Amino acid sequence: MFNYFEYFLNTMAKKALIVGTGLAGLSTALRLTSKGYEVEMVEKYHQPGGRLNLLEKDGFKFDMAPTFFSMSYEFKELADYCNIPMPFEFVELDPLYAVHFEGDKRSYLIYKDLKKLAEEFADLEVDLEEKLRRFLKSAGEIFHDTENIVIKQNFDSLIGYLLKLTRVPVKHAPKMFYSMWKEMEKNFDSFEVKVIFSLVGFFLGSTPFDTPAVYSMLNYTELVHDGYHNVKGGMYKIVEGVVKELEKRNVRMHFNVEIDQFEQRNGTLSAFTDKSGKRWEADVFVVNADAASFRGQVLQRPKFNTEKLDAKKWTLAPLTIYLGLDTKVKGMYHHNYFLRRNFEEYAHKIFKNSIKLDKPYYYVNIQSMHNPDYAPPGKESVFILCPVPDLRYKPNWDDAESIADAIIQDMSKRTGFDFVAHTETRVVYHPQQWEGMFNLYRGSGLGLAHDLNQVGGFRPSNKDEQLDNLYYTGASTVPGTGLPMTVISSRLVTERILKDHGTLS
Ligand SMILES: Cc1cc2nc3c(=O)[nH]c(=O)nc-3n(C[C@H](O)[C@H](O)[C@H](O)COP(=O)(O)OP(=O)(O)OC[C@H]3O[C@@H](n4cnc5c(N)ncnc54)[C@H](O)[C@@H]3O)c2cc1C
């Protein structure tokens, strides 16, 4: 019999409270409002964006963390899903980035055009174009054979996940059992080529020596599939664009609000409480804070207590440096990696802080090169990211400024440009600060790593195990970290919510 009462309840606007305004939280808000939900958001930081944030100082602007992204079509999917025009404009990077090795006078430019790329390494690697085509063909097959089966899926159980995996063609199976570095050795001869194409292993939170070869699919996404993109006007335009849409939809955002307690009744979450004691009620709750540490620290789940969280694999922590220079930099590209020749030693020792940090590996982005309004005329805004051990292995960061000094001196020596003399303003954020700003567990920059036992059905689920109206979105739940993944995460959690609570419009 038609139940009018149930129909009436289901057609009333349901309220969703989202904890966190990172990209995953903002995208989830956009999707849920498109389906008729009323959304309210609370955020610990003083402005939206989470790690995708903006720092402004002395007339300079800096993208605080992400500086480029792959799989740009996921943003288009978000806009289409919500029936809005693209809220920002992206620009494809070409060359993708430049790599400098210590002791080498030249830098290597990484192009998507494989012919040009092969010419760049002509003196180091014979037949590189042919070798790359072979390597990328196999990497591309892995990507397309897993994208819809594993990456863009919700899993209700571990068995369900393992069953899904059986649909991946068996020919890829061996690559789960040997490393990305071995895959490089099988395909290439030169040290430089092997190191450059295995850097993606670090993005996943491990080393190329521990990361399974299946993840070479990331080389396919960077070199063939969709490349890397920037945003016209700076990365924070993504946040500004989405927030503008949310304002039109009357989404209320409350900043400097940190959730630290909860109330439940009969297996349902009735309210979150913030540090000032204010209660936040809703019908549905979505947590954009780290899906593993929130379960432990706020929900007090024994499976996510400190000991268990510390036993998980986490991605490296960031030490970030923001420099406002009084002149333009010469001889550098937009995206630059500074590497050394002790690659294997570095990879094995960096995670556990058993290597000296005065000779680090780092990434440099000249932010005002493509976004002139990031610096006053004739000046430059520069971002440096040095991956460092997290707070489990290096809890004390009193030496952060001196590590930053060493990096800047090293960069000056290697580029012949005196960054120290030209610095007008400088900010350094170390892992303790990153932890404090956004509740990043132990300061880990990208969240949970992507070892095979921490992905898919093994990753903290986006649906809570105990409370039936509590969900998660973001880097440490499915599918994983990075900007496009968090946009996919917002779709997966929205699908769950709509399945459980209904589409309202
Ligand atoms: C230095 C660095 C560089 C990076 N570079 C890139 C890059 O170039 N390309 C790329 O694709 N990705 C990059 N990433 C990764 C990318 O930033 C993240 O994967 C993505 O931004 C995560 O988004 P999110 O929404 O899951 O989480 P977040 O951005 O962390 O958002 C979560 C939000 O929840 C808030 N919050 C947490 N706990 C609470 C609480 N208890 N109460 C209220 N609010 C709370 C936090 O303050 C935060 O705003 C980088 C990350 C770092 C750190």
Strands, count? 19
CATH class category label of the domain at 4-56 and 66-88 and 234-312 and 448-501: Alpha Beta
Mean pLDDT: 95
Radius of gyration: 23 Å
Distance between the termini: 23 Å
Question: What is the CATH homologous superfamily assignment of the domain at 4-56 and 66-88 and 234-312 and 448-501?
Answer: FAD/NAD(P)-binding domain
Number of helices: 17
CATH architecture assignment name of the domain at 4-56 and 66-88 and 234-312 and 448-501: 3-Layer(bba) Sandwich
Largest sheet: 7 strands, mixed
Shape: globular
- CATH topology grouping of the domain at 4-56 and 66-88 and 234-312 and 448-501: FAD/NAD(P)-binding domain
Secondary-structure-based class equals alpha/beta
Bound molecules: flavin-adenine dinucleotide
Strand neighbour order, sheet with most strands: 7-6-15-16-17-14-18
Report the helical percentage.
25-40%
Poorly predicted spans: none
* Beta-strand content: 15-25%
InterPro entries: Amino_oxidase (IPR002937), Carotenoid/retinoid_OxRdtase (IPR014105), FAD/NAD-bd_sf (IPR036188)
GO molecular function: oxidoreductase activity
Organism: Mangrovibacterium diazotrophicum
Pfam family, one: Amino_oxidase
